Amino acid sequence: MAIDPGSIFSKLGAFTSDHESVVSMNLFVALLCACIVIGHLLEETRWMNESITALAIGLCTGVVILLTTRGKSSRLLVFSEDLFFIYLLPPIIFNAGFQVKKKQFFRNFMTIILFGAVGTLISFGIISLGAKYVFEGLNLRQLDIGDYLAIGAIFSATDSVCTLQVLNQDETPLLYSLVFGEGVVNDATSVVLFNAIQSFDLSHIDSSIALKFVGNFLYLFILSTLLGVLTGLLSAYIIRKLYFGRHSTDREVALMILMAYMSYMLAELFYLSGILTVFFCGIVMSHYTWHNVTESSRVTTKHAFATLSFVAEVFIFLYVGMDALDIERWSIVSNSPKKSVQFSSILLGLVLIGRAAFVFPLSILSNLTKKNTHEKLKFKQQLVIWWAGLMRGAVSMALAYNKFALFETKDRKNAFMITSTITVVLFSTVVFGLMTKPLIRLLLPSPKHLVRMASSEPTSPKSFIVPLLDNGQGTESNQSNQNVPRPSSLRMLLTTPTNTVHYYWRKFDDAFMRPVFGGRGFVPFVPGSPTDRSNH
Amino acid sequence: MAIDPGSIFSKLGAFTSDHESVVSMNLFVALLCACIVIGHLLEETRWMNESITALAIGLCTGVVILLTTRGKSSRLLVFSEDLFFIYLLPPIIFNAGFQVKKKQFFRNFMTIILFGAVGTLISFGIISLGAKYVFEGLNLRQLDIGDYLAIGAIFSATDSVCTLQVLNQDETPLLYSLVFGEGVVNDATSVVLFNAIQSFDLSHIDSSIALKFVGNFLYLFILSTLLGVLTGLLSAYIIRKLYFGRHSTDREVALMILMAYMSYMLAELFYLSGILTVFFCGIVMSHYTWHNVTESSRVTTKHAFATLSFVAEVFIFLYVGMDALDIERWSIVSNSPKKSVQFSSILLGLVLIGRAAFVFPLSILSNLTKKNTHEKLKFKQQLVIWWAGLMRGAVSMALAYNKFALFETKDRKNAFMITSTITVVLFSTVVFGLMTKPLIRLLLPSPKHLVRMASSEPTSPKSFIVPLLDNGQGTESNQSNQNVPRPSSLRMLLTTPTNTVHYYWRKFDDAFMRPVFGGRGFVPFVPGSPTDRSNH
């Protein structure tokens, strides 16, 4: 029943020979629809969220397929990293950059980098070392140093989607931007880390290799960011220069999508990290390009990117749920069920410790740099941040497949690693995920919370009717107009001392960047052009 | 340099082994961007249009690649029918159904079916028979009856994209809807016809087989239409029932896209014509589903579908341009250049005759059924319709590849057929295409014409600011609000006697369909819901 989605039909049109793959494809699309519908229906319940729904539907389908194929297979699709890293991950990360509240993100930039990059490295170190010492005590001697480092990278990749569905962007802007920002930087860091490990000869480590490793890491980080920024600026410049006075929504949208994708492909071309590139391309595009296009284009890109990202996420969880029941793998592991459980619980424990080991110290460090008391992270907030990054998800799965899926069915060690990863992902997503909503209500009680849950728009993007109907000046970034009128965030904005870096950046932006690349208030007046109706 | 876009990278992330394919992919995306930008810049010129621009850029790139690879290859991508029939064609056809002016389409339904289905069959018969008699005189005896029928189907598939870019939907609504509608029905008919030919044993034809063939054709046509309508209605029903009072733009958009795609896949599942299904699914979705979603969703779906379709079209022409320079094929044919030219010009001549043979007689037939003089098709209009369908494009190419691309390099006949198809496509698109704008200006002179050319939005979708900002009742279908206030179309609407079928359909629609499936004015009032702000 397994198919490669890249070549679904071997023949044209109605008389296709590969009828089974059409059946699979239909089933899969129908399941995606089911996930969306059921996820919407379950939105109001206390425990569930979209990820868990998709996982559960995937598991149920897996069971049904297992029964109908008499235990031969549980999958509709063969997992391919290509599918994940080329088609599913880029839209998710790009959308993250595109929808992030830039003001909050850059205000907390240092803390986010601290958590996302330094924190991930700490977590990586603890999990790698912990795995090495514990597993060597358990006589799992087949694992070499490269495997331990890979385990560290795999299990330091967090999945904060669940938490973001529960946190409220307007009530807890600080927490939301920290969790969100950390999640993105963490994704990028762990993939860069994983790639760096894969490409280095790790059989004998000395200080010069370690230094080279750090140098390589920084090189990747900085160049990838620069490439993303440059591609974003290029798109802003092209659209601004070409479409002066004459707008064409479809061409603008097509150009934005193509250039976003091209930033990812260019990063691959130069052996850089596509994830970081596409993330910063998203930020730049939402800061400049997005303001140079028609209002229809704005609404379209906003929701098209969010929808792509949403479908990609549901796709991944649905897939992981189905793949979890691969019978061959479990039969290899089933000889030693005790060892398998031991192995997975040790990994889960290491994940818990590894995250605690950087969230609390780094929070204290971050608090030291802040003067205002209410800007500091309270212990309850630190707990939420800690909890928010405990889930392991699609990135972990994809990295594990990449490292261990070769000759998987023949090799005991590899089967063991994959099943352990699946166990950790399933357990953390379902058990930790189910506890998230109640935990956050307990730690951050809010009278508005219940009201918000019953209303709409669970994922990051917001409805666009308000910015379209009012023609106010307040639309600084994409969403800050929803932020500014709220007394809580307004007060916060006034009482906190303006970050000097941010201040000089704004001056530079207004003096040099926006006149060239466009942006709010810097799009020239064209009579009849919809872009400018809201500005004049 | 050739790659299969379904499996672009063999390894993860930055350290991919297949670096050449990344280079190709980057180049291809960059070329797409270039086509869009240059197409926009050349829009105001008298001769060019987007298709010709993409073809020209493709040809130039092909030359450059030929030179850099020293004559080995001219392509960045291997043409795959899968890519065309699964990823590129469905969005184009779905968008055609989604954006069609339904009132005009259904008012001229009989004429469109007459041209699209009966006309294509006539054209198919003439080209097949003509090819048989002429080529048998030329001693091309390798061709069998199946080949002649395939030639008929391949060269009766029109490509009216060029013409639609030039015709004005508001000035000449009748002509526009006829050319547009005929193009879509023709696409579907020729693919259905081609599939029917492929699956039948044509070595001995008698009356019972011919009858079976006609039965099969009608069966495909009717069931495919029904399936499309049912899927569309299902999507309307689901969204209407589920989202009562609680709207989520991303989920709505995702559901619409997934269900549109599923209609295509379901048709494949039941061995029906996906093209017809997805076209009627598009019509039903724009009539019911589209009215049940939020305003953001409406703008997003409208432009997202149009953009997808636009990119797919540019993609196809860019590809055909590059593929036209495949050196291997031409070297096989180059032994007999005279014969090759003869062959292609005969095919072109047959295309011209085949189209003339049904446009003028069927126009007269259609005129007989109409009472009002100004509803009848004048000779100049008939000429425009004839001209509009002379171009051969992507569908012809895809069908030709499907029939003749197996063992192509070894087989002389197949290489011959492919190069002839390329020649006809290139010649008709470039030469006929370049003459279209001047010809239409000559035949249908209009003072507004020049003004319109200088403004924006070349392809079918229109800007959405107007329907978003006015909260009128006039938004009957997606675009009729732009149509209704115009005196010309309003006058036409009042003076023509209301078609009785259309009248009863409206009564039925209002009494039974809209209360169940939603639609304009039948979405229940939900306080604060954006859908209803415009209706109350």
UniProtKB/TrEMBL annotation, chains A, B:
Domain Cation/H+ exchanger transmembrane stretches? 31-440
- The region called Disordered is annotated at 468-487
Q: Which UniProt keywords apply?
A: Antiport, Ion transport, Membrane, Potassium, Potassium transport, Sodium, Sodium transport, Transmembrane, Transmembrane helix, Transport
Its primary localisation, in coarse terms, equals membrane
Tell me where the transmembrane regions lie: 22-42, 54-71, 83-100, 112-135, 217-239, 260-285, 305-325, 346-364, 384-402, 414-435
Extent of Polar residues compositional bias: 472-486
Classify the protein's membrane topology as the record does.
Multi-pass membrane protein
Compartments (UniProt record): Membrane
Positions in coiled-coil regions: none
Claim: Nucleotide-binding is one of the keywords in the record: no
Catalyses: K(+)(in) + H(+)(out) = K(+)(out) + H(+)(in); Na(+)(in) + H(+)(out) = Na(+)(out) + H(+)(in)
Q: Which Pfam families match?
A: Na_H_Exchanger (PF00999)
Q: Which domain of life is it from?
A: Eukaryota
Q: Which family does it belong to?
A: Belongs to the monovalent cation:proton antiporter 1 (CPA1) transporter (TC 2.A.36) family.
Protein name according to UniProt: Sodium/hydrogen exchanger
Which source organism does the UniProt entry give? Answer: Rhodamnia argentea
Tell me the gene name: LOC115753664
